[in-house]
Design goal:
The chain has about 300 residues and is mostly helical. The chain has two domains: about 110 residues, no CATH class; about 120 residues, Lysozyme (Orthogonal Bundle), CATH 1.10.530. The protein contains eleven helices and two strands; from the N terminus they run H-H-H-H-H-H-H-E-E-H-H-H-H. It has a two-stranded antiparallel sheet. Strand 1 and strand 2 form a beta hairpin.
Amino acid sequence: MLQTAVMDSLAVGVSDAQALKAKAASGDPEALKAAARQFEAMMVAQLLKGMRETHFISQEDDPFGGQSLKLYQELLDQQWAARISQGRGLGYAEMLTKALQKQVQNAGAAQPGGPVPDKAGADPVAVVSGADAVNHPTTAPVDTSGKPNLKDYKRSFIDRLRPQAEAAAQTTGLPADFILAHAALESGWGSREIRSADGHTSHNLFGIKAGSNWQGESATAATTEYRQGKAVRANQGFRSYDDYGQAFDDYARLLGSRYAPAVNAGKDAHAFTQALAAGGYATDPAYSKKLQAVIASVARMSS
C-alpha cells in the first residue's frame, strides 16, 4: 500500500509538470511562476534522494535499513521538497521565472504570437554537480543566443588533441578515435579536466589515479565510484602532467601494462570497451555502453 502511494505521488508530479510546461508556453506569468516552483521542488527532491543514496557503510551492514523505511523516506523527502519550495524557497524558482519570462519575451519578439521553442531535447556538453561544478567549470563556447555550440565544441576537442591521440595510437595499435573518445568521456569533452588546488589543469584527460607507485605530481579531486551498485562520492588523487602529450603517453603505457585485452581488441569498439570495464578501469556498471556511444560520436565527426 505504501509502495502504491509513492508511485501515485510520482505520477502526479510528472503529470503536473507536463501541464505546467504547456501553460508556461502560453507566456502566462502565473503559470511561469508555478512551473518554476514545481521545477525547484523536483530539484530538491532529487537532491534529497541523492543524499539518501550516499552510503558510508555497506547497505547489508546498515541496522536501520529495510524496504519499509526506504519507502517512508521517499514519501518524507517529497513532503520536504514541497515545503522547502514554498515561499521564497531556495531562490532557484525566482531565478528560473525571470529566465522563462525573458525567453518568452525573446520568442515573442522573433515570432509574434508564436509558441515558446521546446529545448527539452538539447544535448548538454556535460552534467556536473557538487565539487565537480566548482573544480571543473564548463568551458563550452557560447553563441549569440546563449546556447552552447556543442558540435563545434566537440570538434574543437577532437582537432586539438588528434596529434597526441595519433601518437598514442601508434604505440597501442588502437584507432585514434577510440583514444579520443576515451578522453572525451573521462573529461566531459575537456570541460571537467582535473585541476590542482591552485586551479591549474593536470592535463589528465583519462582519469588516471595517482597510486603508490606514481612518482610525479598529483591533484586531488572529487569523483563518483560505484560500490555494491551504489554511487559514492570520494576525494581521490589523480596523476598530473606537464602537457597533454605526457598524458597520452602515460595512457598508452597504462593500457599496454594493465589492459592488454583492450589493446588486443584492435578496431572492435565493443571488445575494447568491454575489456576496459572488465579490467576495472571504471566502476560504473554502464561504462562500456557509455564509451561505445562516445566512440560512435567521434567517428561521425571524424568522417
